[in-house]
């Protein structure tokens, strides 16, 4: 699929009427945060060469803790736009997140604007990170929501599995960052695609594709655990009330 085919902003859902999404601040911040992450943690990046150098890509990481978003945004080879819960986009933090090109999503409803902005990012050939699990938890991709499947079906963007290991320790709290010096592994998988589907896209079809994507993501995180010898932390000790 060519880049021209992926930039059809007049296709449904339309994105040609949306304002440009800023990204310069995000590009600067990632270069500032990256050395901090490497100093604070025993960080290893695996298979970075698998990250597509150009074109649209859907990053699909597992979700363990507060560290996941800042870490992945800092160490990814390209500037990432990330979908995050609307509760985090408050006050000064919210202003900075918006200016850095991050997208808030209200998970209590079908957030049409957030979805259109996510599609806009991919149609512009950028990298977008979406947590397929939706919430922080065991990080084993046991439950997959339909968001990544829908975005892939609309845009045709390849999906890049990512296993985050060590961003929460066993028995750790999802509201906390791991201690300084903790071992953290970021393992990129092989990117893959699903069939692009024209409007309308039925919910049953999105669910079927999400299940297929879930199979690939579960296999990747299991392979990452085996290859690194770094296990998942299991269930968190406390549920985030906003999750």
From TrEMBL:
It comes from the Bacteria. Keywords: Acyltransferase, Transferase. SMART domains: PlsC. Residues 57-167 form the Phospholipid/glycerol acyltransferase domain. It holds the Pfam family Acyltransferase. SUPFAM superfamilies: Glycerol-3-phosphate (1)-acyltransferase (SSF69593). PANTHER family: 1-ACYL-SN-GLYCEROL-3-PHOSPHATE ACYLTRANSFERASE. This is Phospholipid/glycerol acyltransferase domain-containing protein. The lineage of its organism: Bacteria, Bacillati, Actinomycetota, Actinomycetes, Propionibacteriales.
